[in-house]
Design goal:
The chain is mainly alpha-helical. It is built from six helices and two strands.
């Protein structure tokens, strides 16, 4: 950008821009010489930063891991802990077995007795006999948790008895109370059953359970029939 005024180097007077001679002394106006700006560029080669090579891990097969675990030494304390855990699990399984057996026996006793008692009230021994055998068979075939085995058949028997009492006035010729109590107990006993264990002992006991259930159902049904009659 040009300066607004030019200074005469001879007399020091200020002259307007564009003047060739000083108006004060008449000397030629010399324009100031501005030294050129020199820019020096230094070319520095770019550094190639190479990331360190990652160490490659050798692939480990499951067989190698299993062999390493098998070869690892196990101290006696860990072995004792594993034995104790196994004994605890075994005791828990035995306790569950006895609890489920007791629950099934109580369920058969209640349901068969109620069916027998209701059959005795109408003097129908055939329903009492069938009720005891069928309910005992269904409870013996079903595999449930102890609480399920205890409550399923009795709840079904009670619901069937209530439904029979409500429907009985409409069909006075049929003993609906005893029949629906039998059907409700048998259906509820088998509902929600799961697959039995593959253990050899449990498998043989599972084959025996239906016969034990029918025997118990027969006895309690006859007892209820005698009392109801």
């Amino acid at each position: 950008m040009p300066k607004a005024s030019l200074t005469c180097i001879y007399c020091g007077a200020n002259n307007p821009a564009g003047t060739n001679r000083c108006k004060a002394c008449g000397a030629p106006i010399e324009l100031p010489i501005v030294p050129p700006v020199r820019v020096t560029t230094i070319n520095t080669p770019a550094r190639n930063i190479t990331p360190p090579a990652m160490a490659q891990r050798a692939d480990t097969s499951p067989e190698q891991i299993r062999d390493a675990l098998d070869a690892a030494p196990i101290n006696d304390q860990l072995k004792d802990g594993l034995k104790a855990a196994g004994l605890g699990i075994g005791a828990l399984g035995v306790g569950t077995f006895f609890a489920r057996t007791a629950s099934e026996a109580a369920s058969i006793a209640f349901s068969a007795f109620m069916v027998g008692y209701l059959s005795g009230m109408v003097n129908n021994g055939l329903i009492a006999l069938a009720g005891g055998l069928v309910i005992g068979l269904m409870v013996g075939l079903a595999v449930k948790r102890p609480i399920g085995a205890l409550l399923s058949a009795p709840i079904g028997t009670i619901l069937g008895m209530i439904a029979g009492n409500l429907l009985q006035p409409g069909v006075p010729a049929l003993p609906l109370t005893a029949l629906l109590a039998l059907a409700g107990g048998a259906i509820a006993a088998i509902l929600g059953s799961r697959r039995s264990s593959t253990n050899v002992v449990a498998k043989w006991y599972g084959r025996l359970r239906p016969f034990l259930g029918m025997a118990g159902g027969f006895m309690f049904a006859m007892l209820g029939y005698v009392i109801g009659k």
